[in-house]
Amino acid sequence: MTPRIVTMDGRPVDTAYGLSISPHEAMGAADIVTDLVLDCEKPFAGLWTRQIDWLRERYAAGATICSVCTGTAVLAEAGLLDGFEATTHWSLADVLRQSYPEVRLVAQKILVPAGPEHRILTGGGATAWEELALYLVARFCSPREAVRIAKIFLFGDHSEGQQPFAGAQRPRRHDDAVISEIQGWIADNYHHGNPVAAMVAQSGLTERTFMRRFRAATGSSPMEYLQTMRIEEAKHLLETTERPVDQVAIEVGYEDPNFFRRLFKRRVSVTPTRYRQRFSKLRVLKGQA
Predict the structure, then answer these.
(1) Has residue 158 been placed in a domain?
(2) How many separate domains does the chain show?
(3) Is 147 a member of any domain?
(4) Is the pTM here over 0.70, yes or no?
(5) Chain segment 165-189, per-residue pLDDT in tens
(6) In this structure, is residue 149 part of a structural domain?
(7) Contacts of 72 by beta carbon, 8 Å cutoff, 6+ apart
(8) C-alpha distances in angstroms, 268 versus 97, 146, 228, 239?
(9) Of 253, 244, 246, the residue nearest 225 (C-alpha)
(10) What's the burial of 90, exposed, middle or buried (CB within 10 Å: 0-12/13-18/19+)?
């Protein structure tokens, strides 16, 4: 999928903030349509005749139509929301209820998929574009990719800092073949009990030599490296499954769920349950698509 910016005549548009947006083309065959310019000071009827004709044509052809903030009014005027749930910016809610009683407005929601195959999406206030963007990525790519993007761009609640968004750093390159082999072993056996002793045995080195070479190659101790791998796998399970936290703890190698919770909170800055609340919604939205 290649995103395209379109305008009615293909010419640049000056925004209210003084920025000019250069489109790729005039209204044509775009598959995903973002919202259009709206002047709430004027009556809506008859304002967007050409745009509405084009939106109806694209929707009939199978396009997914999206709006954010007050752009819901355009879709309501087009009749695309009749009988469906929709959301909008809270300041426009009463106006839309009066003007379009056929629309089932749920202004308390941030994002509302509606219509056959959920091909109409309405978002709340202007920053709801973040929720919309992640939803589209989860729907058309994968929930895992949406989570990755949310972490990279820090989409979501920032009250607990950046750490909940952070992922493990890429392993450091090195030329120690023995340690490389052990790293591969850890990837498949991180959940086993007493793994550090097993690493030493697998390496064929003395414990002291192994510890020294492992730190020199990776920049961390074997236990630190193992904990990082376990926590990253736990995060993946919390994002993609509904397994209880205690079960997640056991699956990644911790027999004591309380120790796992404390370690997770120390490393990620939030509890496992809170982490799941942050990122599992993308999997839920994907399931509703």
Answers:
(1) no
(2) 2
(3) no
(4) no
(5) 555 566 778 899 999 999 999 988 9
(6) no
(7) 81, 86, 87, 88, 92, 96, 122
(8) 43, 19, 10, 14
(9) 253
(10) exposed
